[in-house]
């Protein structure tokens, strides 16, 4: 079994955004009035030595976790994202 790298996860997230017709998510910035700005789409969140898939909503700059289990090892997240990609009605 080969090692899953962060680049592998980023490529899967890029593919997920393309399939679901979202632009690649850019970094979050700020408006002048203090509100946060974000693009709509999927991106990775990393903490505690693990990663999770997060969906950002452009309308209200909210984020929600898509994968289960909090921040998990790369191999588990790789398998979960592949499951999402194979499921057509997400």
Radius of gyration: 14 Å
- Shape annotation: globular
N-end to C-end Cα span? 28 Å
Helix content percent band: 25-40%
Strand order of the largest sheet: 3-4-5
Question: What is the N-to-C order of secondary-structure elements (H for helix, E for strand)?
Answer: HEEEEEH
| Tally of contiguous helical segments | 2
Uncertain regions spanning at least 5 consecutive residues: none
Report the average pLDDT across residues.
81
Largest sheet: 3 strands, antiparallel
Keywords:
two-stranded antiparallel sheet; single chain; 90 residues; 26% strand; 2 helices; alpha+beta; 3-stranded antiparallel sheet; 5 strands
Structure description:
- The protein is of the alpha+beta class and 90 residues long.
- The chain has one domain.
- The strands form 2 sheets. A 3-stranded antiparallel β-sheet has the order 3-4-5, with helices on one face. The chain has a two-stranded antiparallel sheet with strand order 1-2.
- Helix 1 packs parallel to helix 2.
- The longest helix is centred in the N-terminal third of the chain and has 14 residues.
- The protein is globular and about 50 Å long.
In short:
The protein has 90 residues and is of the alpha+beta class. Helix content is 30%, strand content 26%.
Q: What is the topological layout?
A:
Layout: H1 6-19, E1 29-30, E2 36-37, E3 41-47, E4 50-57, E5 62-65, H2 74-86
Helix pairs in contact: 1-2
